[in-house]
Specification:
The protein is built from 9 helices and 16 strands. The protein is of the alpha+beta class. It has 2 domains: 234 residues, CNF1/YfiH-like putative cysteine hydrolases (4-Layer Sandwich), CATH 3.60.140.10; 34 residues, no CATH class. The strands form 3 sheets. Strands 1-2-3-16-8-5 form a 6-stranded mixed β-sheet. The structure holds zinc ion.
Length: 287
Amino acid sequence: MPMETITSDNQLAVHGFYWRELDGIRALICAPLEQDGFVNGFSTRLGGVSDMPTKALSLAGFNEDRAENILENRRRFLKLFPGEWSLAGCWQVHGADVRVVNAIEEAKPAENQLGDTIYCDVIVSNVPQVLAGVKTADCVPILLGDPVTGAFAAVHAGWRGTLASAVLVAVGRMRQEYGTKSQDLRVAIGASAGPCCYEVGPEVIDAFTEKFGDTGLFASTRPGHAKIDLLKANTDQLKSVGVLSQRIHVAPICTMCRTDLFFSYRKEKTLNGKVGRLMAVVGLTPR
Ligand SMILES: [Zn+2]
């Protein structure tokens, strides 16, 4: 592996992250978000039971993997977080609709349903023992915590979700539901397809330019195409509503560069026909 693709633990620490590992399951933890009172983690592909291609920790995608595999993988992943948890997810549709979880009974999928049946890409809550979780494979997973009110949120933002300002919808809903102030927020952005790899075409470039103007998100590659920086796009959005840059932590890892650690839809879908799903979760630290 070329030296520049190795992300040292020291580099991770500089950005506020560290690895947690238990029984071969590994997750990236945002230390400042944890210190602010929020259990959090971004999964890797290591240590599971799915054939993607082997021993993979795929945490969602009931149409591409056996339910028993996904449920066993989730059980292993959740062991990284001491305490009793109910996982609240959603059927993600690359939009900016919000699910508010008001009680622990609401968190779990409906009876007789394996996966989540609520269509959304943002989950907010302030309920103890609820873990808000979003699934990704290249898209940007964003976790938010407000140490003042105890509100938290998980956001799934690929290019469509970023274009729809999903992360700002999360901030706005946290303000509306819990009185969250932007400057109190702590934000962790996990591994995703980075500006080093994520090439998009004219439909994406035009849509962003039309909505946001020239924001320096694109690096031209070939006619009509450019690499997009969704990390910058999301951090710019957060800063535009008063979230402090020193309270935004971005994991310095690209899922397309590091398919040894993460699932990448763009790298693996055509190669293997199916792709595992990572999960990012956040909840209140048990007291
Ligand atoms: Zn990359």
